[in-house]
Amino acid sequence: MSPESQGQNEHYLSVARRGFRTWRGDRPFWAGLFTMLGGLPIMYFPYANMHLGNVTLAMSTTAGAGSLIIGVLLVTLGLTMWFHSIVRVFAGVAAILLALISIPVANIGGFLIGFIFALLGGALSVSWAPGEAQADEGTAPAAAVPAEEAPETVSFAKDEQLPEGALHGAGIPEQQAYDMSGETEGGRHRAG
After folding, report:
1. What is the pTM of this model?
2. Cβ–Cβ contacts within 10 Å for residue 100, how many?
3. Is 62 exposed, middle or buried (0-12, 13-18, 19+ CB in 10 A)?
4. Alpha-carbon distance 26 to 5, whole Å?
């Protein structure tokens, strides 16, 4: 008799952490995070004021609205990668394009910080692929089949002819002969 079943008396933080890891594994999490981190400096720097002692340095440019739009779009694309991962390729390509556009528009892409993060996030989103579904415990994976139970393979030499019906049922469709003699008239098709 087991003293306790698995999962009982677990702390709520470990349950939440395991749930977050499962959620994070089902989507391009890091791509969305980097894309959002790239959008923040791009939309922040044109409106920021730095204070150096008694001197106020204003970073505002004429392209402040453009950089705000690019930054908001990058944050939106990052959230799209998280919550609607089916469009991850579109979101990744759009993030890469917005990162490239931010170089001339938004203070050299948020002083290259936002540009690099948005470019990295877009590349990660384009390259991300969903993981394979795990097999049930009752079924064995294909690699675990013992050699004596594996199907027998037959190999032939290069010039050797296959016996009749050797590939029957091998998953290769059989070639069917097609008679074209009745369809052509003098080398031309009937419709022409």
Report:
1. 0.61
2. 15
3. exposed
4. 27
